Amino acid sequence: MHTAHGETALATMNFQPLLDEINDEIRPLLGQRGTVASYIPALARVPAAQFGIALRTCQGEEAQAGDAATPFSIQSVSKLFTLTLAMRHMGDTLWERIGREPSGNPFNSLVQLESEHGQPRNPFINAGAIAVADRLLSRGDAKAELLALMESLCGEPVAFDAEVAASEAATGYRNYALANFMKSFGKLDNDVQAVLDMYFHQCALRMSCVQLARAAGFLCRDGAHPRRGEAAITTERHARRINALMLTCGTYDAAGDVAFSIGLPCKSGVGGGIVAVVPDRLTLCVWSPALDATGNSLLGMKALELFVAKTGLSIF
Ligand code: GLN
């Protein structure tokens, strides 16, 4: 796919000055536009004027700038990891309950779910991730399984933020509506409360850009563990499919725009984090809490655009 020339250029690319440069360009824009996710009270209190960027290459080199070591609520970025576990357990039978088409609708929309009889369009909108959480619960202790996966990927302990999970449990009316609606169509096997408890906890994982860039490393390495010598996280086929879903569905109703302006598989969350994958090269995580109208980090997207413009890296 890439020319020998491209490989030489990238192999010699020193990413640290590049991330410093992006950080310098983004910092003056902090706090100017966008709003933090105010519908989750615990997230509404997060100071907007923060920005971090971190990357990890397939060879294990790392670079970071800005607030890259500050932990934040990963929110929907967690859907990458629960999907990975569900695909590992269930293979193609997972798709009997969940579609693979972009929604073209906001991540928490109810409309499509009604016309499609409780079958979520894809695993990254809330309804789809709730259905994935249901599948994982049917297999056992889903929270413990997710924590174990994240700790293995990061090489250090990772925790749920109990305050964020409780805040969403107290106010997540839309997610209750989505889950009850799916339950009424017979699309959830487990108790709605138990499924949402898992979903709210996965969204409440607290991680930094550095940790997320590491954790997503298997997605640029055809499923291989980010650290050499560890068992593969998923198969090459599954890793490709997760990347495909990230490109088409990972940023919700902005997915077309993101493919157009950035051209990388991305997964965003309303905590302001975005993970992007350059297949066979590197994973990147950006974070800035202020969001645009589609629920994606405004300056995170801007930083990804700068990264792609400066490196020429894109899947196209
Ligand atoms: N926990 C959030 C919610 O359910 C996740 C949404 C997101 O990050 N896009 O609304």
From TrEMBL:
* Known EC number: 3.5.1.2
Q: How does it assemble?
A: Homotetramer.
> Is Heme among the key words of this record?
no
Question: Source species, please?
Answer: Variovorax defluvii
Name of the protein described by the UniProt record: Glutaminase
Q: Which residues bind substrate?
A: 76, 126, 168, 175, 199, 252, 270
What UniProt keywords apply to this chain's record, in alphabetical order?
Acetylation, Hydrolase
Q: Name one Pfam family in it.
A: Glutaminase
The UniProt entry, under HAMAP family, shows: Glutaminase
Q: Which reaction does it catalyse?
A: L-glutamine + H2O = L-glutamate + NH4(+)
Instruction: State the similarity comment.
Output: Belongs to the glutaminase family.
